[in-house]
Amino acid sequence: MFACEQAVQLAPDNGSIRDSRGLARALTGNTQGAIEDFEALIAQVDDQEIKSQRQRWVKDLRAGKNPFTDEELKSLLNQ
Asked: Which residues of 40-55 are buried (b: 16+ CB within 10 A; e: fewer)?
């Protein structure tokens, strides 16, 4: 988390960095922080597939669900 926080401090408007921190936050239990970071990326990204995926994550996180199944995490390796 330290590296994620430092990266965001250096480039707070970088959606990719916020996206990475959002994933780290979600996996470490900081649901609200993850939602904020994913929403920052959603506002910036043009790729509809990525946008749709992050919107689904936000919806699940808000509903108290964990969107990060093993399959979902494996799919991220290809992005």
From this structure: bbbeebeeeeebebbe
Q: Is residue 79 over pLDDT 80?
A: no
How many independent structural domains does the chain possess?
1
pLDDT of residue 9: 95
pTM, full prediction: 0.91
Which range marks the domain in which residue 18 is found? 2-76
- Taking the alpha carbons at both ends of the chain, their separation in whole angstroms is 21
CATH of residue 19's domain is 1.25.40
Summarised one tens digit per residue, pLDDT across range 19-48 is 999 999 999 999 999 999 999 999 999 999
Provide the residue type at 65 as one letter. K
**Distances from the Cα of 74 to the Cα of 10, 17, 20, 35, 59, angstroms:** 28, 19, 15, 20, 20
